[in-house]
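Continued from yesterday's entry.
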Amino acid sequence: TGSGIDCGSTCTVTLDDGSTATLVATPAADSVFTGWSGACSGSGSCEVNMTADASVTAIFTRKQYSLTVNKTGSGTGTVSGSGIDCGATCSVTLETGTAVALTATADSNSVFTGWSGGGCSGTATCALTLGADTTVSATFAPAATQYSLTVTTIGPGTVTSSPKVKGSIN
């Protein structure tokens, strides 16, 4: 906008020789103004002295935010999704409004116990839409160690257990 101009993506206005057009760039709520090209440069207001035809481009980019994923707990596993494949900690920068779906996969000796942060909870996929710098944690715990118990009976009789277990007793 400026000097009687109110532009959408492209506009043309005719101005008198020797006049000055002062242009001001205003980003949308989800964008930032990164600068001018053409008859102006920099990121402040743009003044064009009209002594010939001129062209100016205002460059806007969508805001970007960081998404950081932390793996916590004493278990191990991986977190991936939406272009992310994390080691112990990872961070990626994405445009505002980007939908992200994170999946946690526990290693064979661990279990995934849940999400925290970024509006994520539970153990299902963590789905969020980036609108600010966001940190999400995936917690892994060691899997419970399990052992087999074999019970054999010799002669007539039965064996019961407490707690009651499923399986066959021979």
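--- second protein ---
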Amino acid sequence: MENILFNILQLSLFETLCVTGALVLTGMVLGVLEHRTNFYIQSVFGMKGIMVTAWIGTPIHELGHLLMCYLFKHRVSGFKLFSLRPREGVLGYVNHSWNSKSLYQNIGNFFISMGPIFSGTAALILGMYIFLPDSFAMFSNTLTFEPGQPGPYTMMKIFTLTAHIFESIFSIENLVSFNFWVYFALAIAISSHIALSKEDLKGAGRGLVTIFTFILLVNIVVLLLNADISGFFTGILALNFYLLAFSMISVVFSLIRLVLSAFAYSLVHKIV
């Protein structure tokens, strides 16, 4: 009996990872990159350096929260997509409440917290479609990407696709194009503010616990009914690889911003 319970618990943890893994991983990576980059920028330019990109990136960040609130039927009591006079470093916010007895709304806490990853990635893809249609055509090939049964070569496929996409974006033809530099500036601004705040992470944690509990209960019922839903979670896991492939765009532009800010920081300190 103990082995059965342990197996159900282990399976539930794995399936929770299938559902949330790509978003959690992307959020963690972007958080580390943004934290370090902001240190460099504020050290050199102060808060003005953050505000240069915030007027574009922050509204897109908050819009991700707001749309997810409506999708998961949370009550929005107030929001501000961007503030020119931030208090305590808060550039924007979305205040919302939910019915604690609603399973759907409790699960929604996770996806509401992760909303900026959806809105930020969507904005980057839309910008590519408008300003770099040839690169978007290359990117659209990922829509036909068939991860199949996830394995050790799946991540390699994702990195290969990402390399091809950025090879197309930073082509010689694009580098001499005005549209490229408009998109580059927008992409830097958007990716600068996708990362999740501490409050976002708290909300994600609440939703994550609910998702795990729900999956655990489903697995217990499935065991009692002797049913098989493994195919469903395999499909969800495949979807996570799609999300990883798409979100690599925001990760790479965040890396570019980190390199540029680190260069400016080192240059100023050498001069001083």
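The radius of gyration is 21 Å. Strands lie at 75-80, 93-97. Will compare against the first tomorrow.
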